[in-house]
Write a structure and sequence with these properties.
The structure is a homodimer. By secondary structure, chain A is an alpha/beta fold. The first copy, chain A, has three domains: about 55 residues, 434 Repressor (Amino-terminal Domain) (Orthogonal Bundle); about 130 residues, Response regulator (Rossmann fold); about 130 residues, Rossmann fold (3-Layer(aba) Sandwich), CATH 3.40.50.2300. Helix content of chain A is about 45%, strand content about 20%. In chain A, helix 1 packs across helix 3 and helix 8 runs parallel beside helix 9. At the A-B interface, strand 1, helix 4, helix 5, strand 3 and helix 6 of A face strand 1, helix 4, helix 5, strand 3 and helix 6 of B. Strand 1 of chain A pairs antiparallel with strand 12 of chain B, so a sheet runs across the interface. Chain B binds a DNA duplex (16 and 16 nucleotides) through helix 2 and helix 4.
DNA sequence: CTGAAAGCGCTAACAT
DNA sequence: ATGTTAGCGCTTTCAG
């Protein structure tokens, strides 16, 4: 790797002094307090003064010093979102939804991640706490409830699609067991009988989705033995597909779209087409994992509702609600082209 | 969408008082200043005192109030990273690299994004400025240099893989024109003559990559007319592939892996296999976009170096460097299985 | 090596 | 409707 380096011009030492409230007050001849109230749109200031202040502030390039403001007011107007994995589009979608609602309520959003590592997730959470953000939304995180709940006493925490045992937290989640059951039953209805599951392991909804798959299979009198995987990345899907190659099922329930996607691609490399040879259903209905028009049949967890409800719960907490809420959202089947009727099913309907 | 809601127990009003430095001082019988220095590992405190202080702090669950600390010290120990798109794994990889180096240097990382919208990117930048973070790394952002450069006077900003005209900023970038040329020449060497490009439009390296493609084609005496696309999402790839269906080339240079991936999937839906019928080369070598072992031939931009160099430049600025640096990293071809010799090329070598 | 005191920039409760 | 005052919790001189 060649690397061309060049030094260019130079500029101010880097730390030009920022304009303060005092500067604005001096420039307009009013008190600091009046400036503060003007700029924040609070009552108690004449319209004329407000105009002058606003103009002066702009001219001076004044920007509120948030640390100072937070220290004095004990509120920052910022909420933190901690996502489990930056690589999973599900989280990207969800944080889009969170931002939209948060911004509509005058809150700014900052992101953190633990890269699927519990200790680093915890550090991200502590960072937000140190910053004294107004609250945190945890999405798809793997941390244990025991570690998070004590923090909730100082700073409201809402868990989204994670922390199933966190009873002392506001929580909004998808009924993953139901979702996986719906996915499985969809394939069964299409006439498939040999159905495999690529599961997610212990993270987030992995267990519930596995349970949903197993229950649906048993209820249909089918064997739920073919289970591979143990993660939520596309590598999981690829590796799982390889394992399934030995005894190829006619359909696969993947624990997430990303996983399904990895499996589809890997199968293709082995000359196995989806849905031609194998039907594949994903989970999450995440935009990027299903980029190609309508390809991947999947389970939609209404992640936009997940996100907006999470912010709403957080805002309620900021407004003083002392109880904790639990919301379970019902998932939905989204039928696309990656699943088709079983070849035999077409003729004899079972 | 059914939604089950339930209210559960209730807990403290939410705002338990946090332990302060004063509390720790009182508990140990030393001054606040001594506590502060102990906890920060500064010299000037006896080892015995430090031990006692550390223990008391832990027992009290003390956590430094970062706003207060930032206000007093004018440093926060936090840097902000603004990424162009949460959905593109390239950014996820890059921010992984940034975090690693930053954390090794005692800096904590927070993320922001503008969702490919310039105004929202600007807001993210202002948020970081308001927070008085120590510096910001802009990766793949679409904001204009004019808007960013003034802010650099107050808070160091490093641009990564974006802002090509920002001469007053520290900048580290990949030579995208060279990269696209390498990609194109790779296909030409494989015997392809009808090569199309799915381009990225005006964002980040889109222009340079297009230029590299065009130059390489012209230099080889080939036509560079078949250019479709205009974005960096997988949808761009899918749509581009559809356009190319009419007059199918034997090879495609995509402006990013995500785009290549979208194209590959779309082609598959039309019964066209890669590399069987068409060779496809991507750009970025991003992990998630090439999940399946070794499939997608691509151009590696050494994003981990991009990320670590960016942090290093930022740290230099924090340590007082007044000049601005520009680093151009040379990309590298990564040959995998999505590109093969042109059928005719196999026989007559061109 | 330790303690006292000043102040970072802002907000909020008060007095005018 | 405006101005004054006292902190918020921490860091950092500067005496001891």
């Amino acid at each position: 790797m060649l690397c061309i380096v060049s030094a260019r011009g130079m500029s101010a030492t880097g730390s030009e002094r920022e304009a303060t409230l005092r500067d604005v007050a001096a420039a307009t001849g009013v008190s600091e307090a009046a400036v503060s109230m003007s700029l924040r749109g609070l009552p108690g200031v004449s319209e004329k003064t407000r105009q002058r202040v606003t103009k002066a502030a702009e001219q001076l390039g004044y920007r509120r010093n948030l640390p100072a403001s937070t220290l004095a007011a004990n509120r920052s107007g910022i909420i933190g979102v901690i996502v489990g994995d930056l690589h999973n589009p599900f989280f990207a979608d969800l944080s889009d939804a969170v931002s939209a609602v948060a911004e509509a309520n005058g809150l700014r959003v900052l992101l953190g991640t633990g890269y699927y590592d519990r200790q680093r997730e915890m550090e991200a959470l502590e960072t937000f706490r140190d910053l004294r953000v107004d609250g945190v939304i945890l999405v798809g995180a793997g941390i244990e409830a025991d570690h998070v709940e004590p923090i909730d006493a100082f700073m409201p925490v809402v868990a989204v699609a994670c922390l199933p045992r966190a009873d002392a937290l506001d929580r909004v989640a998808v009924d993953d067991q139901l979702g996986a059951r719906m996915a499985t039953e969809h394939l069964i209805e299409l006439g498939h009988t040999e159905i495999a599951h690529i599961h997610g392991g212990s993270i987030a909804g992995g267990q519930d989705r596995l349970a949903g798959f197993t229950t649906a299979m048993h209820d249909a009198g089918l064997s739920a033995e073919q289970v591979v995987g143990g993660g939520f990345t596309s590598e999981t899907g690829a590796k799982g597909a390889v394992e399934l190659l030995e005894d190829l099922p006619s359909a696969i329930v993947a624990c997430s779209d990303l996983v399904a996607w990895g499996a589809v691609a890997e199968l293709a490399r082995h000359g196995i087409s989806v849905p031609g040879h194998v039907s594949v259903i994903g989970y999450d209905n995440s935009t990027t994992a299903a980029p190609v028009g309508d390809f991947l049949t999947t389970i939609d967890g209404h992640r936009s509702e997940l996100g907006s409800r999470a912010v709403e719960l957080l805002i309620q907490r900021l407004n003083g609600r002392a109880t904790r809420e639990l919301e379970i959202i019902e998932p939905q089947l989204v039928t696309r082209t990656s699943t088709v009727a079983h070849p035999r099913g077409e003729n004899c309907d079972g």
